[in-house]
Design goal:
There is one protein chain. This protein has eight helices and ten strands. The chain is α/β, with parallel strands linked by helices.
Length: 292
């Protein structure tokens, strides 16, 4: 895999790993990770998408994996920095590597939220003629709202307690040390932004001037939203709730059950079935063919 270095604000840098397809006109997809997961976790799906005819780029989120500096060597940061500071610079590097491309975003869990919110803002800028490039479409997997009422009734108390406890600990300590839903350490403001969204259902990242709820409602790009029937962190009800927030999107839904030939259907293990999921996603990207 090719390696490209991308610099962001404040000395933050990323390493992009690139699997270019032999066809220079092949669609390009950028994979965005979940909380506390490294980009290399997604190598199976990256290889499956590449084998199915796409050029693929992976990257870590800030303070994860190969990105530098580490979590405790920089000030805290939240959704705003991930969406409005880092991702535009990563996408600029992708477009430089693949001139003339309009990349697709493939996001898992938090990576899917970042992908959708960035795409919504970028689409609005495109409509107003204030941006170049743009996003061709978004695919998300295990990405739903974490609004407590979007979970099933029997899980309301669990969702409120767990997510708000994580947000409180992150606010007091300045970071989340890991454990209880999220195994690895996470920056404090990402977790307080996440907890605020869980309380209110609204996207109000600290420091932003954008109305992301309005932008989501206006999003008119192709979106493939994938849920898995054994996923407790991003269950179908939460994915459906988020999809209802995007009434203008050209939306396709794929709820994966055993009938799809996917054996591993929880929030993380689905990558073991990349040989099934990858070609289906690639077919959607290339031909807008909704997975069955």
């Amino acid at each position: 895999m090719e390696a490209l270095r991308v610099d962001s604000v404040g000395g933050v840098s990323f390493v992009l790993r690139v699997l270019p397809h032999a066809d220079p006109d092949a669609p390009v997809v950028l994979i965005l990770p979940a909380m506390a997961l490294k980009a290399k976790f997604y190598l199976p799906i990256a290889r499956a998408l590449h084998a199915a005819g796409l050029s693929v780029v992976t990257t870590d989120l800030r303070a994860q994996g190969e990105s530098t500096p580490g979590l405790h060597d920089q000030p805290t940061f939240g959704y705003r920095e991930l969406i409005e500071v880092d991702l535009p610079r990563v996408l600029a590097a992708v477009r430089t590597r693949f001139p003339g491309s309009r990349p697709y975003l493939f996001g898992h869990s938090l990576g899917g939220q970042i992908a959708l919110l960035h795409a919504a803002a970028a689409a609005a800028e495109q409509r107003h003629g204030t941006a170049d490039g743009g996003i061709a479409g978004v695919c998300v997997i295990g990405t739903g709202t974490v609004y407590w009422k979007a979970f099933g009734f029997r899980r309301w108390a669990e969702a409120l307690y767990s997510i708000q406890t994580i947000g409180l600990v992150a606010q007091v300590r300045g970071y989340w040390p890991g454990g209880m839903l999220i195994g690895g350490a996470m920056p404090g403001r990402v977790m307080t932004d996440w907890a605020r969204h869980s309380r209110t259902s609204r996207y109000r990242p600290h420091g932003t001037t954008r109305d992301y709820d309005r932008l989501l409602a206006e999003l008119d790009l192709p979106v493939l939203a994938i849920s898995l029937d054994d996923d407790r962190l991003g269950p179908k009800s939460n994915v459906d709730f988020l999809c209802r927030r995007m009434p203008r999107a050209r939306l396709d839904r794929w709820h994966i059950t055993a009938a799809a030939g996917v054996a591993h259907r929880d929030h993380f293990a689905w990558t073991k079935d990349a040989a099934v999921i990858g070609p289906a996603v690639a077919a959607w990207i290339r031909d807008r063919r909704r997975p069955e």
